[in-house]
Amino acid sequence: MSSDNSNDDKNDKNGKKPLRSAAWFGIQGKDGFLHRSWMKNQGIPHDNFDGRPVIGICNTWSELTPCNAHFRELAEYVKRGVREAGGLPLEFPVMSLGETNLRPTAMMFRNLASMDVEESIRANPMDGVILMVGCDKTTPALLMGAASCNLPALAVSGGPMLNGRFRGKHIGSGTGVWQMSEEVRAGTMSQEEFTEAESCMNRSRGHCMTMGTASTMASMVESIGMGLPHNAAIPAVDARRQVLAHMAGRRIVEMVREDLTMDKILTREAFENAIRTNAAIGGSTNAVVHLIALARRIGVELSLEDWELGSDVPCLVNLQPSGEYLMEDLYYAGGLPAVLRQLGERGLLHKEALTVNGKAIWDNVKDAPNYDEKVITNFDAPFKAKAGIAVLKGNLAPNGAVIKPSAATASLLKHRGRAVVFETVEELHEKVDDESLEIDETCVMVLKGAGPRGYPGFAEVGNMPLPAKVLRKGITDMVRISDGRMSGTAYGAVVLHVSPEAAAGGPLALVQTGDMIELDVAARKLHLEVSDEELERRRKAWVKPESPARGYYKLYVEHVQQADQGADFDFLVGGSGAAVPRDSH
Ligand code: FES
Ligand code: MG
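Structure tokens for the assembled complex are given below, as produced in the milestone run.
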């Protein structure tokens, strides 16, 4: 840095540390001219460069990410708040990740987007940042990237869509697709009805309104302290969502003045609050991977086993896919604060954990009313008992696997069955409806090659479609095991995230059709009944898959970590702060 802009560490005449942005906009000479003059081509008055906090608005708007397509308008409300509080808002785009369009899977690009976020924040003149998040992967990508810079940051979720309505009934995004497509395959729903449902399911701006990954992550944002109260559930179209964005804009300016950096919020206690909240909302298994990755960015020790902290917590919220209602109902019932209050009353919340509004989480929720006990059930008569994610171990998953018991058929949580193996997702699609496939409902479906390296990208294919001949018997669930993930809107007795994955040479790679597998969720056990000697013999014959030849795929496959470590890139773990030693000229 040249001598005329190296004012990072010196205090001003009031004894205050100058803001980070002053190293760009607060300097004289050629460099100050360069930084300010070009910005003025946007009509920014000179006095806006007087040392006021510069707030970046990190926006994942894209017409290819329908869940975030309203974010440019929502960002305008953030700007109102920033200006009211005396800050200068500057919006910038980052890579957007739309769950429904991206191939091979949006998860393939979570780490790439997080790199975009991290470097965009660090390289630019900003003192604090608003993270505009919505569709599944946009939330972890922005939190992870921002955490590696550790500026003051506040996440604003875009809000869920209104309830889907189809022929007089509620239908949930995602969940309804899985249900209705099985009905079409079973012959109980016509193709015409199925097509009509397309426009009935997703009928307003916003993200999935089931308790899928987007709503789960919006709830994680709120429970971990990174969002304002009610961040999770206000519908995207409700004017109160715009007010929330407005308030976030005001608040981030104060956070800069308070130097309230992310590491002060993302403590071990905050993560534990989020884990227990995930159980209480019946949240997505994807949160396991995302929160572990986030913790490793900010330097908090968090292991897969720590998810057992939530395993005894009941599911209070009766929302699809585990239950009946949708996010709009959750908001009218009192929203996430009403859930957090119950956790606090039962000693399941670290009450002192700090949140972005500057208050302890308990101060935000202790008086939160519950207006509808059908939607937010009571701890004494919970929607589901012991609902948290269970972490399984055994010779089939030495580094762990997960299952969401609340989304599974209870009788399958202890099950022993004959494996029917699909080496790839293509083989699954080709064979699953083949009438000659030797399979019935007592079998255990096993899918390989769906993990981070194997797919590549760690796809949401773990909730394998059931064989048509099983569906015709009226059976809707079977034990399924894979190294993949499952959409947060999906359900079933599905064991996910098996680690190490098949493509990394995990024991999953060695399973053969006909092997017996034992699942015992209460005992946290996933056992392959094959001797060590036989497994060793099979291992010798196993061939490691080749890396992709070039480009991002190559980078991804060579650096992605396993599911139990959050599937981040090895070189992205940790953070580098916000300082940059050199200017561009
Ligand atoms: Fe975007 Fe579900 S597809 S949130
Ligand atoms: Mg999803």
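The CA atoms of residues 17 and 455 lie 48 Å apart. Residues 1-9 have pLDDT under 50 and may be disordered. Further analysis is deferred to the final report.
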